[in-house]
Amino acid sequence: MNLNWCYLYSPVAMLRLLQLLVGAAFIILTSKSGFHGPVYFALFMSAFFCLMTLILFFISLFYKHWWRVNEIHDLLAAALYIALMAIMIDQTLRQSYCNFEGNPLPCAYNVFLGATFCSGFCFGLYLLSALYRFYA
């Protein structure tokens, strides 16, 4: 079992590492916001796809012929992150009332706004990875 050095230095591997980094930021922000309603779903699905991305990264690092599975994974993850972005936009809008100075209650508006940005960025990264594999 040899390490696939060509894959490690490829743009696809760099996209995978960015997907893991931004996915981890999404998980941290979502878990910091407090759990209620659809945030459970967002946290579970982002953690699931982050772990699947990590597993596929290591499989692709050791085996060369997993490009079709990676492409399907990227398209599914892009579709999922659109749904997660919609959930986070909804949660951000629900918390927008508490984003004024002098509010004594804890406010998760900035956390949800950051999670919305991270989910949009993850969507872009997964879509870029799928399109790169499709056209390469």
UniProtKB/TrEMBL annotation:
It comes from the Eukaryota. It is found in: Membrane. Its main location: membrane. InterPro entries: Marvel. Residues 7-131 form the MARVEL domain. Coiled coil: none annotated. GO terms for cellular component: membrane. Keywords: Membrane, Transmembrane, Transmembrane helix. It is a multi-pass membrane protein. The chain crosses the membrane at residues 7-29, 41-63, 75-93, 113-135. This is MARVEL domain-containing protein 1-like. It comes from Chrysochloris asiatica (Cape golden mole). The lineage of its organism: Eukaryota, Metazoa, Chordata, Craniata, Vertebrata. The gene is LOC102820675.
